[in-house]
Specification:
Layout lengths: L1 H21 L19 E7 L5 E7 L20 H13 L10
Length: about 100
């Protein structure tokens, strides 16, 4: 149990470090937030990978956000079907097989 606590803490630190490195947010004092704006809450999502690695993700509660006010861009790591077909065709022509699909 103690190893898990240390592992989850390390996963959280890694996630915070990644956000700091990428400049994902700017930390502001609560008193600096205008009265007509809401502070968006964050939640931690934890996952133990098949390899046993511990992964922690810091996520914004999206249901509380307003487009154009709290964010102006979205990102979804997805692949278009045409890209997938192209990748499968290239793998097939090279004599390779595709074994893992994440949908």
């Amino acid at each position: 149990m103690a190893e898990d606590r240390i592992g989850w803490g390390s996963a959280e630190r890694s996630e915070i470090d990644n956000h700091a490195k990428n400049g994902s947010w700017t930390l502001v004092d609560r008193s600096d937030v205008p009265s007509d704006r809401a502070i968006v809450r964050l939640i931690w999502v934890y996952k133990r990978k098949r390899s046993g690695a511990l992964k922690a993700r810091l996520c914004v509660q999206g249901c509380a956000q307003v487009h154009g006010v709290d964010y102006d861009q979205t990102f979804s790591a997805t692949m278009r079907p045409t890209s997938l077909r192209s990748l499968a065709a290239i793998a097939n022509s090279a004599g390779m097989s595709m074994r893992r699909w994440d949908f």
